[in-house]
Amino acid sequence: xxxxxxxxxxxxxxLLRNLxxxxxxxxxxxxxxxxxxxxxxxxxxxxxxxxxxxxLHALEGLPLKLARRARSILKPDEKAVVPELVNFFDAVxxxxxxxxxxxxxxxxxxxxxxxxxxLCFGTGMLRACNDDPVDRFQAQLWSQHGRLHTRHETVYARxxxxxxxxxxxxxxxxxxxxxxTNVIYxxxxxxxxxxxxxxxxxxxxxxxxxxxQCMRHQAEIAVFVHPPLGLDTLIELHLRxxxxxxxxxxxxxxxxxxxxxxxxxxAIDNSAVTQHRRESVRPAPPRYRxxxxxADDSGYDGWLGKGA
Length: 308
Prior knowledge:
Strand order of the largest sheet: 9-1-11
Strand content: 15-25%
Radius of gyration: 20 Å
Number of helices: 11
Shape: globular
Number of strands: 14
Low-confidence stretches: 284-308
Order of helices and strands: EHEEHHHHEHEHEEEEHHEHHEEEE
Distance between the termini: 32 Å
Structural class: alpha+beta
């Protein structure tokens, strides 16, 4: 089966791509925990653009255009704590246009492998549509931050799911959708490039492969802002829609073949745009039509199992 990927490389994701490609990965062993790959981060060596993005964009600060202009916004002793607060180089945490996207990782938090899902299953990003017409938070994401768009994106499945309303004092269950796509964000793509650059280091590749085995049973679902209900079912449907492989690579040689396959089938999009939608949010009638699917005011339409 042949499959094409598209790697986002706009200014934000190009910054993250350069960081994950040039910041060395190493085997990190913590007492009482499974070994994991981590980035050898030196806060003082990270560029000012990273801190501008992290502090002014990811930590409830100024819009991205103003963040790019910021210089010397942190004292040297303050820089040490910022990477951990924003989950290091994770685009889902750093880029508000992606803040509700869902990933499968070895560890949800920490400077670990960002491309683990790609290398184990060959799946691109599971992207939130933020299409609940009555949710004010999702409307705010569209109007203030927008959504990344590339004309090379392929949607393999639109997965409908449920989520709790984000309105204060409201516990209603509403409906939304996630797209299972071929998109690769800059942080994961830079990590793939680093692995390829270090392909002659067989010891390093063996270490990476050993850590990837944790994706079989110990993988964590990474979602940081207003997660939907039924995350396990959501990931299962995402993998069913487009997975090329069903288990982590058995050997470092197989890992290298998968790495070669993904990179050789990936196009880099330097002209991805940010789409905005400015619509007023009004209470929905008892029945409404959103796109090509119907929903009612019961908060449940049978798409997910009873345990969701």
